[in-house]
Amino acid sequence: MTQVGPGPIEVVWHVEATYAPDGAESRVPFRAEHIARLQRLKAEGIVIEAGAFTDVSATVMIVRAATEEDVLALARDDVYMRNGVWVEIRVRPFGRVREAG
Fold first, then answer.
1. Which of 14, 17, 26, 36 is most deeply buried (CB count within 10 A of its CB)?
2. For residues 39 and 57, what is the distance between their CA atoms, to the nearest angstrom?
3. What's the CATH number of domain 9-97, 3.30.930.10, 1.10.10.410, 3.40.50.11540, 3.30.70.1060?
4. Are 79 and 34 in contact (CB under 8 A)?
5. How far is CA 67 from CA 27, 46, 56, 74, 75, in A?
């Protein structure tokens, strides 16, 4: 679904991953691996932005991918999802305003 051609809007994906009630504690052993993966995906241009709410209720990511299934696979493969730190993933198409020029 990612629009790669010209124009002011790029269609990407908004991902929200909800933490388990004990997410602030349960993420600790997996945090370095999780952050390293996000940094790699950002360097590859797949993840545009990512971060958690400061109350550790959810993570938000903006992701480039062809399909919703690709985005879900990417999120499900995260160490947080595989270890129960995240308990739910919601994905929606998102119109991202491109930089001018």
1. 17
2. 21
3. 3.30.70.1060
4. yes
5. 28, 13, 27, 11, 13
pLDDT of residue 99: 84
Cα distances from 37 to residues 21, 23, 65, 71, in angstroms, run: 23, 18, 16, 15
Angle 43-48-51 (CA atoms, 0-180°, nearest 5)? 100
Could you read off the pLDDT of 3-51 as tens digits, one per residue? 555 689 999 999 999 999 999 999 999 999 999 999 999 999 999 999 9
Please give the C-alpha separations between residue 99 and each of 9, 34, 60, in angstroms, as whole numbers. Answer: 9, 28, 21
CA distance 97 to 100: 9
